[in-house]
């Protein structure tokens, strides 16, 4: 597996690309890449093979020549995670592990029973940290793109996020649900005539969803599901649910 270089630009065979800044320094001075080494450029138009043509260790720059497209590795059906804000480093773990798994994007937001608050400089710093974690995990997992990580001030602002990701299936992980399991909901969605566009999973805080939040989410089209008889921690629930989704759509080696 080759190392990944991520870019928001499109690339094409024969194109020359310079990697500078923190990533260039890492490749040139930490990993000590050499001429002729192979990489993959994960670009806006998909992953492409690339080869190192020059390395300037002093300046921390690496020059690549882009080759042909290579096989995509990210799930064909994107899975997004709406994660209630949790205290400590719990969201860090959610972003890291779910990025490795293949989650396409994260929306973190405070809910009624969330513990702790993020505002101002603390919010800016934490959001930057989550995005850095996502980028590092995406590289480690050989992803085709770095997942998006966004912060929304509450459920009332979530309409915009849902409009952006266009969920074909919106699943509310709810400890009060006892009849509809995640597997049943997925199988029903996958048997519909129209292809499944995307899946959004919604995970509540340590104390669970408030009744008003449940009502709002169901009004927004969310389907309440259970992921089993055991009550999982908020930082565990999203990983388990995303694993179940990716398994059912054939993205875990099936």
UniProtKB/TrEMBL annotation:
The keyword Metal-binding does not apply. It holds the Pfam family Methyltrans_RNA. Coiled coil: none annotated. The keyword Cell membrane does not apply. Residues 19-63 form the Ribosomal RNA small subunit methyltransferase E PUA-like domain. It is found in: Cytoplasm. It is an enzyme of class 2 (transferase). It catalyses: uridine(1498) in 16S rRNA + S-adenosyl-L-methionine = N(3)-methyluridine(1498) in 16S rRNA + S-adenosyl-L-homocysteine + H(+). Residues 77-245 form the Ribosomal RNA small subunit methyltransferase E methyltransferase domain. Keywords: Cytoplasm, Methyltransferase, rRNA processing, S-adenosyl-L-methionine, Transferase. GO terms for biological process: methylation. Its EC number is 2.1.1.193. GO terms for molecular function: methyltransferase activity. PANTHER family: 16S RRNA (URACIL(1498)-N(3))-METHYLTRANSFERASE, RIBOSOMAL RNA SMALL SUBUNIT METHYLTRANSFERASE E. Belongs to the RNA methyltransferase RsmE family. Specifically methylates the N3 position of the uracil ring of uridine 1498 (m3U1498) in 16S rRNA. Acts on the fully assembled 30S ribosomal subunit. This is Ribosomal RNA small subunit methyltransferase E. It comes from Alicyclobacillus cycloheptanicus.
């Amino acid at each position: 597996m080759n190392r990944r270089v991520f870019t928001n630009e499109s690339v094409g065979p024969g194109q020359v690309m310079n990697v500078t800044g923190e990533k260039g320094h890492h490749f040139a001075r930490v990993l000590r890449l050499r001429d002729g080494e192979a990489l993959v450029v994960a670009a806006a138009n998909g992953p492409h093979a690339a080869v190192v043509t020059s390395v300037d260790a002093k300046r921390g720059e690496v020059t690549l020549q882009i080759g042909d497209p290579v096989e995509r590795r990210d799930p064909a059906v994107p899975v997004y995670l709406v994660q209630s804000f949790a205290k400590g480093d719990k969201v860090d773990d959610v972003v890291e592990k779910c990025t490795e798994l293949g989650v396409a994007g994260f929306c973190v937001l405070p809910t009624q029973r969330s513990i702790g608050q993020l505002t101002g400089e603390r919010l800016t710093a934490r959001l930057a940290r989550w995005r850095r974690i996502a980028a590092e995990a995406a590289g480690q997992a050989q992803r085709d793109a770095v997942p998006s990580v966004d912060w929304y001030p509450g459920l009332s602002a979530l309409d915009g996020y849902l409009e952006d990701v266009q969920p074909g299936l919106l699943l509310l992980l709810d400890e009060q649900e006892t009849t509809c399991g995640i597997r049943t909901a997925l199988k029903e969605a996958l048997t519909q005539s129209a292809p499944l566009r995307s899946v959004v999973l919604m995970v509540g805080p340590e104390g669970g969803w408030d009744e008003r939040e449940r009502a709002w989410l169901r009004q927004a089209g969310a389907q309440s599901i259970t992921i089993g008889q055991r009550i999982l921690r908020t930082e565990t629930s999203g990983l388990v649910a995303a694993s179940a989704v990716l398994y059912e759509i054939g993205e875990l080696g099936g």
